[in-house]
Amino acid sequence: MRPRLIKKLKDLLVQSRKPKWGGKQPPLPPEPPEGGPDKVWEPAELQGIPVAKDLKTNLRLLKQVVGQNSDFILREFTVGPQKTPAALAYLYPLVDEEKINAFTLKSLTVDYPPDTPVSFASIKQHVVTHGTLNEDVSDFWSLVLAILDGNAVLLLSGAASALSLNVSEFQGREVAESLTESVVRGPRDSFVEGLKRNIMLVRQRLKTPNLVLEKFQLGRLTQTAVVLGYIKGLAAPELLEEVRERLKRIDADAVLSSNFVEEMIADSPYSPFPQTLATERPDRVCSYLLEGKAVLIIDTTPFTLVVPATLPMLLQSPEDYYHPFAISTAVRWLRYFALLISVTASPFYVAITTYHQEMLPFELLLSIAAARQGVPFPAALEALLLEVTFELLREAGIRLPRPVGQAVSIVGALVIGQAAVQAGVISPLLVIVVALAGIASFATPSYELGIPLRMIRFPLILLAAVLGLFGVTVGIIAVLIHLAGLRSFGVPYLSPLTPVKFSELKDVLIRAPLWAMRTRPGTSKRDWHRLAPTSKPGPPPEKS
After folding, report:
1. What is the reported pTM?
2. Is 145 in the same domain as 199?
3. On the chain, which terminus has fewer CB atoms closer than 10 Å, C or N?
4. Which of 305, 362, 344, 322 is nearest to 488 (CA)?
5. 173 DSSP 8-state letter
6. What's the Cα-to-Cα distance from 113 to each of 15, 78, 217, 401, rounded to whole Å?
7. pLDDT per residue over 304-357, tens digit each?
């Protein structure tokens, strides 16, 4: 009878310990996997591993994931009078060790209040003095990512989460003048390779709570921070949702620069024309934010992307808004004329000298014929050789160090051009035409737009050699048809020229006075007035 009584008592004890919700035990957290030195850790795998309450288990897995790095520091100690085991993990090149020693380790080990229980809540309230703390580190992927991002992670025995401390040390290039978008009159600062400093440059100009910055992590190996910025109430919700979806679709190992993002979110990936505007000027970014556009600030690169982008945007210069409107309008028309010359100068020369000599005055025709006497190549081959030589000199000048590059590009053009003319290989007039087209191409404000415009000259020269002016016209029409069919996040590339929006032409064909541009472009959500109706300046009224 006694064994049966003992068995019944054991059964009753087991039944009393069973939960009342279905008789099933709650699932236990998964055990951390064992990883050798050659194990490759995937983010999805680390996301499924929660931070355990056992400190030794956490430290063992943390050493398996990042312990092979020579710059990984794991400092174990005890906290408070209860001698609670704790550990601090960080990568020493990314953190400020003075902050760790003075404001973290000393506060936890020496200055801990004796009557305060050891917990993350009490540590945040009474001990650690860092401004940025994050207690929502509950899985190992968040823990490892915080360490790789330059933070120190505090692990505490008995806590199923970790505390991330912002002790990162900012290192990077100081804010300097823009090299690609220089202006005579205007701000001199430009973006750098640090994300925090770039955000600071934007917030210095837009002191509004409606400026929203959303952060994304792109690249499985790089985990590059990409910040989507917009002004709430101005940017269209459809545009923001489309940008978010395209960013989330990027599934790549690495995102190293703005061009990686630009190619992955383009509407027409095979088009040579840029479909986003890349700029390193904070004032230009803020102006487009005020027009209801979205910007992408990318870590480790000084170029910020503006979407959507149109062809008139790429032909605008920041200096247009730092001079009187009459001067800016004249310079803008000069820039449009330079674009036309850079694309059509060489093809027109080939077409006229090959097929349409009757279009030239008789004296000019005799001069051209005398200059071409003895040249062994046809005009088309002559133009192609000179254009290729000019592009080689341009590329060599960019790749060489700046003092040497300028000398090579200038001296090389003079020496090669003069020697080719004296040798009778190239006609003097063609040297003038190609040099004029090259100088005109430098007037394009956007470097990304200038490259495809220069490349268009080569097929136009071939069409001019085969079909004359008819071939040049067909080529230009084909380019215009391609541009008219392009979209940038659903916005026509030639907008507001086609489809025509007369209210927006005041900042395209001309640069209207600032007091006259009271409305925003149609891409913005709300047509908030920029200026009051009485903003037009004028003399004070005469006193009676």
Report:
1. 0.83
2. no
3. C
4. 305
5. P
6. 44, 13, 39, 59
7. 999 999 999 999 988 888 888 899 999 999 999 999 999 999 999 999 888 888
